[in-house]
Amino acid sequence: MKIAISYPPIVNEHGQKAMVSQNRNVQFFKTPTYLLPVTHSQAATVLKQMGHDVYWDDGNAQLKNYTQWFDDLVAWKPEIVVFESTTPVMKFYWRTVNQLKELLPDTIVIMTGYHSMRMPEETMEQSATDIVLRSNHVDFVMARLAPYIMDNPDWRLTCSLEGLSIRITGNEVRSTGNFRQVEPLDNSPLVDRDLVQWEKYAYENGNYLQTPGTYASSVIRDCMFGKCTFCRYNGPDLTFSVMTVKRSLDEYETLINKYGVKEIFDDSGVWYRGKEAREFAQGIIDRGLHKKNCYFGINTRFEYLDEETIKLMAKANFRFVLIGYEAADDETLQRLNKGYQLQHVETCLTWMKKYGLHPHLTIMVGYYWQTQKQLDTTVSEVKRLMLSGLARTLQVTLCTPLDYTPYHKECIREGVLLTDDYDDFDMSKLIVKTPIPHDRYYQAVREMYSVAFHPLFILRQLRFMLAFRKRDWQFLFTYGFRAIRRVRQHIFNLTRHEGKPDTQDSTEPVSAK
Amino acid sequence: MKVLKIEKLTESTFCIRTERPDVAIRAGQLFNVGIPGAGINREYSMYSAADAPYIDFLIKEVQDGFVSPALNRLQVGNLVEVDGPYGEFCLNPPDNSDQHYLFLATGTGIAPFHSFVETFPDLNYTVLHGIRDPDEQYHEKDYAQGRYIPCISRNIEGQPSFRLTEYLIKYPVNPSSIVYLCGNRNMIVDAFETLREQGVHGNNLFTEVFF
Prior knowledge:
The complex is a heterodimer. Chain A starts with a strand and ends in a 7-residue tail after the last helix. The longest helix of chain A is centred in the last third of the chain and has 26 residues, at about 470-495. Chain A contains 18 helices and 18 strands. The mean pLDDT of chain A is about 90. By secondary structure, chain A is of the alpha/beta class. Chain B has helices at about 65-70, 110-120, 165-170, 185-195, and strands at about 5-10, 15-20, 30-35, 40-45, 55-60, 80-85, 100-105, 125-130, 150, 180-185, 205-210. Helices cover about 15% and strands about 30% of the residues of chain B. By secondary structure, chain B is of the alpha/beta class. Chain B has four helices and eleven strands, in the order βββββαββαββαβαβ. Chain B starts with a strand and ends with a strand. Chain B has two domains: about 5-85, Beta Barrel (Elongation Factor Tu (Ef-tu), domain 3); about 100-210, Rossmann fold, CATH 3.40.50. Chain B has a five-stranded parallel beta sheet with strand order 9-8-7-10-11, sandwiched between helices. A three-stranded antiparallel beta sheet of chain B has the order 1-2-5. The longest helix of chain B is centred in the C-terminal third of the chain and has 13 residues, at about 185-195. The interface of A and B includes residues 177, 275, 304, 309 and 348 of A.
C-alpha cells in the first residue's frame, strides 16, 4: 500500500512553526527546532520493511510551506495517511483532514497522538478521519492494521485489532476496545535513518552541543514511573516497554560509525536506570564508542541514578541529562505525583556536577494552585542551583493542561480551565485560573531565564573550563551564543502575554459553566 | 518510616513491614522506597491490605543492584524512606460478587494481588503465580483454598513443571473474567496474546510491568 506518515507545517500568526511529535508538547518557535518523531519513524520503518511504499512526509523538517506540503501529498495519492496530533493543533488537524478527504475521498486517514487516543469520539465527530488509533504503539498497530486493510475490503466492519475507533459509514463509528498496553519493544525495528531523512533533524535542535546530532530509537516507550499527573505518559492505560541494552548499543555504534553522529539523545520518558544503565555505559566503553567524539544525552528522574552509575556514564561520554524539576515546593510535587523528594535534588545534581555531566532542569509555573510563596521558592531555588553550577541549563514552561492527562481532567473537574478552545492550549499563555495574577508567573519565567545573563553564572561557566573538559569549553563558546538566542525566544514566547489584561479576571472558567 | 518487621522468604526475597504514612491508600498502589539520605529510590507495590495499620513490601534483591541489597540489610527499628502512594493499578470490586477476577503474576509481581486479596476478602478470584522454584510461593496460605495456583517452571523430579502461559493455554479462561497482569513483561506480552485469543476483551485486561 502507499502509506504517508505526515506532519504538516503549522505556522502561527507570528510566523512561528509548531513542532508536533510524540517527544514533546507543541510549542511555536521562530528559530526552527526539528525533532525526530521516534515511534512514527519506527512505524515508517516497519511498514517499509513489510514492502509498503512509505512516504516520510515531515513538512516542517523538509522546509515546505503548507500549500507545498498539501499539494505534494495530494499528488502522491496515498492510500493511507497517518497523522499525529496533540491538543493545541487538533482544530488545525481536523481542518486538514477534511480538506484532504475532499480531494482524496478514498484515502484512509488515521489519526494518532495522545489527544485523539483519549478522545477518539471527538475527532470522529469533528473531522472525516477514518480511524483513530487509541494506542501509542503506532508502529505495532500499523504493522497489523495495514495488511488487514489490504486483505479485507470490508475492514471497517470486520477489523477486530485492539485499540481502534473505526468509522463504518457517516457518523457510525465502532470501537475495538482497549489496546495492548505492553508491546515487546525489541520487535519494533530500529529507525531507518535514510527513510526518515535523519540529517534534516540533525542540526536545528537547541539541546545539541555538537552536530550532527540525532535521537536514538527510544530504549523505553512511555515511562518507567508514569505517574506524573501533567505528563502524557501517564494513565492506567499506559505502561512501559524496554529495549535490550545490546540492541540499543548496536544502534549507537551504527549511528557513530556509519552516519558520523556527534551527539545522540534518547528521548525515552525516562532512560534506563540501575543495572541496565551501568551495562549500557560499560558497553559504550567496551566498544570504544566513548572515544569517538560523540556525546550522549538522556531524560531521567531525581532518585533514579546512583553515584556509581553517574560516574560510569560520565566516563562513557554522557553529557546532557534532562531532569524534570517542575517546582521547589513539596505541595506541588505531591499534587503532581512527581515521586521524588526535594531533599535529594542536591545530592543527585552534585554527583552529576562532580563527574562533568550537564544537567538540564525543566521547570513549570502556573499550576492552578501555585501561590506567590510557592512561585518565589521555585524561582529562588532554581537561581541557586544554576548559579552554584549544580545545573547547567534550564527550560521553563507554563503548565498547560494537555491531552486529557490527569492534570487536564483535574483542571476541568476543579472548574479552573479558562478556555475550551484548543487553539489556546499552545503554552504561550496561562489558561487556568490561578491564585495570583498571571503576570506574576510570566515575570517568574523571565527571571529564571535571565540567570543565563547573570555575571555569577557566566563566571561559573568560566570556572568549569579549568577542568579542561572539551564539553565545558564548547558549552561556553559554541553553545553560548545559540543558547542566548534561544533564551530570548523562550522569554518572548512565554511572556508575550505579560502586561495584557488578565483574562482570569474577566473570564468564567469553562469547566465550571 | 520505621521498619517494624523483616521476614526472609527465600535467599533473595524478603518482606519488609514499615509504619504506615498518614495518607489514603488504595490496594494495588506503589510507594517509592529508599534508604534515608541515599538519594535514590525504587518503586515497590504495597503487599498488605489497604487498611492495614502498616505497609508490607515484597522485595527481591537484585544482584548488582543498589536499593534492594541495601533494603535487604535493614534491621528492625531502622528508618526507611517511604514516599507515596502512587499509581492506578487498583481494583474496584463490583457490586456483582459473582464477577471473577484472574490475577496473573510472576515472582514478586504478586504483591498488588496479595494486597487486593487482603483488602477484599470476599473477592471471587484466582491467582496464577509464575515462579521458578517452589520456595517462591510467598505466603500461599493467605489465599483462599484452591485459589492460588503456582506455576513452577523448574524441572524437579516427581513434580509437574510448567509455565504460567502454558497453564493458560491448557485451561482456557472464562472470557467474562477481569484479568490483571503484573510482573515480567515477557509473561505479560505472551499472556495477553493468549487471553485475547481466548476471547477476553481488551477492556477487561489491565497490566503493570515490573521489570
